[in-house]
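A protein record pairs a chain with a discrete description of its three-dimensional fold. The following entry can be read in just this way.
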Amino acid sequence: MSYHPENELLKRYATGEIDSGHGVAVASHIDSCSHCRKIVADFEEEAAEELVAAGSEGTLTGSDLEIVFDNMLEDIMTLDEDFSEPKSRKPALVKVNGKSFRVPSALTPLVERMGEWRSYGGKVFTSSIDLNEDCRVSLLYISQGVQVPQHTHKGFESTLVLHGRFSDEKGTYSQGDFIREDSRTKHSPQTPPDQDCLCLSILTEPMIFTQGVARIFNRFGKGMYP
């Protein structure tokens, strides 16, 4: 695992200030990444210390502190003793293109909200997940030996690799890797000839195709969601 969420995103996860799509993506990543679990634990400890300090300065009432500490105690009681070891959970099951994939249990609420799979030429499949939020969350399956047309992004694109691997102009990404791109990126993801790939994709704005005939999709809503 070579690619991780930025600290800013990990902090938002630790403090509960993250949207549902990114929340489950980060939860799935840290389930198998002790490095990022350690960072999240540090941010949680820092947030707890700030609450204690705010209480001692009188900016929180006694009832506020009671609620905060009750919630903290409940969280502590459900934590593993050693954050470097992942919790034992039952993974969710995703079926696409005649195959079945087990994905992290943190994705179970999303799997239960999956829409029908849409196929693009029998090579790329997407299933949109309705979370009633501004960003577009979907599962993306790319068959082996497929290249996605080059594109950029109006907003952010976050990708969590759930199975297999793919590469683009910047590197190769494998299971567990978390990648975040923005309008500064132009890339053309592709899978190797012998390997398919399943990803969780989060887009805050449509993607914009920058080469070839695929640019015609830019005319519909000034971009396209997968």
